[in-house]
Design brief:
Helix content: 25-40%
Largest sheet: 5 strands, mixed
CATH topology: Toxin ADP-ribosyltransferase, Chain A, domain 1
Oligomer: single chain
Distance between the termini: 26 Å
Structural class: alpha+beta
Strand content: 25-35%
Number of strands: 8
Length: 168
């Protein structure tokens, strides 16, 4: 399994360089992700508005809002879930996180997918209900740069808490 994960990450890096590396100042763009979240987990996310959120898996997104909104609306049908439409603002010139369009290789090419590598970190800019029943929400995120002060402080804190391999 580790081989597959490393190989996929490497392919995303290669595609990222090919798609964005040669541009002097690539234009910012927006991608979307619709999903369900337990109400407890969503409440935790809501408390961290202005803070950071990390997706600890490969993150599939779409450039087409309607497609992602369908996923969020479908999840909101379940009374135990909150439907979430993540609206992710991406500035390729500021980011060091590998991501790439997989439209040409995806089975669902009409979704115009962008795939982000593991552990992608975003700032939570805003959270607002999309419906009156408070079961469908928009969460606006901005992709973080590795030089962001909050992200650097968090990374340093995590490093300090983890014992080094040499001492174990």
């Amino acid at each position: 399994m580790g081989f597959f994960i490393r190989d996929l990450h490497r392919h995303i890096e290669e595609q990222h360089t090919e798609q964005f590396g040669n541009q002097y100042s690539p234009a910012s763009f927006t991608v979307y992700r619709g999903q369900g979240s337990s109400k407890i987990d969503f409440k935790q996310v809501s408390k961290t508005k202005g803070g950071l959120i990390s997706f600890n898996n490969f993150l599939s997104t779409s450039k087409k809002r309607e497609i992602s909104l369908d996923f969020a609306q479908h999840a909101a049908i379940n009374p135990d879930l909150a439907g979430i439409l993540f609206i992710m603002q991406i500035d390729p010139a500021q980011s060091t996180t590998p991501f790439a369009s997989i439209r040409e290789v995806s089975y669902f090419y009409t979704e115009d997918e962008m795939l982000f590598s593991m552990h992608t970190v975003f700032r939570i800019c805003d959270i607002k209900p999309m419906t009156e029943n408070n079961r469908l929400y928009e969460v606006i995120l901005t992709l973080m740069s590795d030089v962001d002060e909050d992200l650097c402080a968090l990374t340093d804190s995590i490093r300090d808490e983890i014992p080094s391999w040499e001492s174990g």
